[in-house]
Amino acid sequence: MGTRGRGRPAQLNRVDIERAVLTLGFDGATTTAIARHLGVDQSSLYRYIGSRRELLRSAVDRAIAEHPREFTHTTWRGYLTGVAELNWSLLAGHPGMAATLYTLEDTPPRSITGLMEESTRVLHGTYGWTISDALLVLDSLADMTADTVNRTERLLSSGPDAGTDRAARDLLDRSGLSPELTDALERILDGGLKQWWRRKVDLLLDGAELLAPRSDDG
To answer: What residues does the HTH tetR-type domain cover (predicted)?
Structure first.
């Protein structure tokens, strides 16, 4: 056993550690849990990472690098819809990532700024948007999506084994809202929280029409 124990750290690498974070979820990726998942001593991890914060940042980079990013588009609106769907699937597919991004706002992972630069180039170069207007709409979509995913995950964790809709309905029962508002929110839940998010995307893109180049048919 001693030989195997000495051999484990040599077989470990940073990519394994980053993927362990993605497997466990950002919200559950403590160094203790990662070490247990990989079958190594916790101290072995620090040969490859400087801090948990650094690890979370590099795990975000790993998640983005390995997430499918190709989709077809022929209009600026189609492109922004695709970007929004990509953001949703990325964040929803990695529990705790949305919340983690808020903690890294002072020094965001390079992959995040890289995605913003890439999307800005498409809007500017392909669809004629000004760079400042492209950044405005992309930042708004990213913020709204991260906030919605984060709040949805917090809602899910509000009760043991509670699904999103069940947790939301329990919250409604405790809210003391008027019957009119309660009925309206129940109809939103009936359509699903992701569908509600898509309506928010449509609302943002309707507003973006005011910024789009007039020569574009959108």
So the answer is: 25-58
131 exposure class (CB count in 10 Å sphere: 0-12, 13-18, 19+): exposed
Q: Which CATH number fits domain 2-64: 2.30.29, 1.10.10, 3.40.50, 1.10.4030?
A: 1.10.10
Q: What percent of the chain has pLDDT over 90?
A: 51
Distance CA 122, CA 119 (A): 5
Distance CA 89, CA 85 (A): 6
Place of tokens 């849990």: 33
Distance in angstroms (rounded) separating the CA atoms of residues 24 and 120: 32
How high does pLDDT run on average in the chain? 83
d(CA 12, CA 90): 26
| Rounded CA separation 150/145 (Å) | 8
Provide the whole-model pTM: 0.80
Above 70 in pLDDT, residue 52? yes
